[in-house]
Queue: 2 jobs
Job 1
Amino acid sequence: MKISEVFATDFDTDIENIMFDSRKPCPASIFFAMKGKINDGHNFIDMAINNGARCIVYTDEINKSDDEVCYIKVEDATKAYISFCKAFYGDPLGKMNVIGITGTNGKTTIAWIIRSIIAHFEKCGYIGTMGYYYGQEVKDSKMWLTTPKPDELLRIGKEMLDEGCKTLVLEASSEGLATRRLEQVSFSTAVFNNLSGDHFDVHGDMESYFKAKCLLFEMLKDDGKAIINIDDEYGQRLMDICKARKITYGIDNKADYQAKDLKLFNDHSEFDLVYDEKTYHIVTDALARFNVYNLLAVIAVLNENGYSIDSILPYLTKVEMTPGRLQMIKAGQDFNVVVDFAFTPNSFAKVFDFAESITQKGKKIIAVFGAAGDRDHKRRPGTAAIADERADEVILSYDDPSTEDMMEILINLKSYFKRLDPEIILDRIEAIDKAISLAQSGDTILLLGKGSDRFFLCKEGRVPYISDEEAALKAIAKKMEKNEGKA
């Protein structure tokens, strides 16, 4: 497109790409000199020109060294970047029904289930922690972010729109909201699931974290719907400040969508859904109390977007759960193996609640986990304290070290244990094999932190990993083969 279609300039420059990384060749591109927490794009203008930028959008005074380059000064480079992205991709999200999900825990599960159920009726897209999806396979997000940056978000949105998707379900992370990645999106529906201490490395404190989440509800259309967990204390606060039409869900407090007579088992859950003075008995393979909250959010979103409860009931019995979220690994063994993405104190507590509910008295809970580098270090004492109190044995192992040394992370994590003396096994596959070798009939093994990830984030980038599921299956097969040999 011509640069003059978006900016007031006499330059008749053709722009074919949006340059995000000035270090990489990107011909016929536009570069926005935006200021981040660490880097200032103004410092990389010359590099951007050398790598193909034909237009530079900036805010500070610069040296205009190339007569063939179009220089455009603006007050807000981020705002200009977002406006250009919308024009470049034809504002695809403005032509779709966009549903945003936020909360400390449950975003991925809620978004994934909503997409899977809508897909029975029409094409539906998903963008979030899993990558992006609208057809037969999950595709990786190039930025490796829960909420992609505007140019990638709109590129993916256009791809989905061209494929016939009418609805997009989007995970709205607090960092994505705070850094304005979603500023170009108008949401028809926004969900607030819960809030607990996390991401202080980004937001600093709980109040700033909450305010970042609230931004999603300011992005609702005039007739948009705010769907809020009324049992969460921050959900109750949001009720007081949100100006959109509010719809509630919950278990303990009276809500528009309320679960009553909840019964939890190790292979299914049952509850009565009360909505509009009608009662629907739900039997679902979604496990644990926190997944009942997730399912209530799903039901509310779908019903408020035109899918009647009666029409979606058949799809609630066997839910397409997100891989790596409270995933039971069953390979004929007589003990429980659970894979979960949990990496915060709050999510640890919920997974241990579930583990205790399926583990008979006198049987052991054995946990394998680590901690990520370059993230909120305040998580480590909390996750360690929960495991120290509630596990019978703990093995600390590899996670996502990023730029830190993994062994130093694990030694630091171990220092927070008071009751237990965790073993450190750096190789995660070996650690999982050891945990499963220790398991006796009726025990529960928890593999926490990686979920369905098939990589480790290291300083050199993504390093391939077979996944906790595959590692567990191999270890179970090895154990069962060994036991058969003894028989």
Job 2
Amino acid sequence: MNNHIHLIQVDLYLYDYKFALLSFITAFVVTLITIPPLISLIKKYRLFDVPDARKEHAAPIATMGGIAIIAGMMMALILWFPFSNSIGQISFFFSILVLFGLGIMDDLKNLSAKYKFVVQIALAVLIALSGIRIASFEGLFGIYDLHVTAQYTVTVLAIVGITNAFNLIDGIDGLAGGLGFMSLVTLGIFLTINGDVNTALISFALAGGILAFLYFNFNPARIFMGDTGSLVLGFVVAVLCIRLMQVNGVNLNPAIPHAPVFVLSIVLIPVFDTIRVFVVRIWKGNSPFVADKTHIHHLLTNQGFSHAFAAKLICFLHGFILLEGYWLRGIKPAFSFLLLIAFMLLVIVLLRNIGFLYKDKSVQQLPSTKD
């Protein structure tokens, strides 16, 4: 049995998604029933995300919702994922465990950025050593196969960069979760189309956990995912993006002619926003790691728009970018890349000035997540 999606001209063979659906539902249910007692436990021990000058929310909110998300994902994978002793799987799940612990420590003690970077770089190197590497740009800017040194360098930069980009965009209720959910479902679908059904289960399992979490995280949020969730989310998205490039590149009938550009569309908003914010901070003579209110969501909330509106609008733009990345698959990759960047520049300009187009600024800001 197959289903044809006319919007993107893709045939989905529904039988291929049997275990994906089971993983998704399992993670969703486990996360959904885990979060209420987790919130109670966090309130009991007063493990709140306390507001300060750089944060958007006005009252202390329970954090570390990532515990429930990861619990849901891992329970689903224990039930449905075909574990093996492969170096790739061992390295991946070991990295998840380390990042999970790092996130909890950061939520509790606010670790230094340098310490977190060292750990992330080490884990990215481990993933690259296990064989999950960016080996080719598939003709983007005339670049095809990469030298081994370049493979490791680009892979580490990509994993660390995407991991932190999702961590930094976790700034208003539902935003990081919404972007992550859409990206993971997209990755799961195209990994399955390319024949890597097992890896796709990881994507669908985490997506199920995030969807359940969003029920408690939409504005006004009752719990935040914290670094416990956002670091793992960004890392998984990064690794699965690289895996999609690998399996697509060796497939005789690849689902995507130019995978690097399509993969860019999956992470474009958080990555572009992080680079833009860092450049602006450096341009102003500030440290790129000193938090401020210049992220893409701040462009809306600083003008008086509600956090719910900002999250929905940015997620809508993310959905359009995902479609755009696929629609552009038939043209030269360099041109597709430039079109995506041009679109993001246009988005930033429009969001900066949307207040002049939409005059009703009476919507009050509601509690939201950290910078």
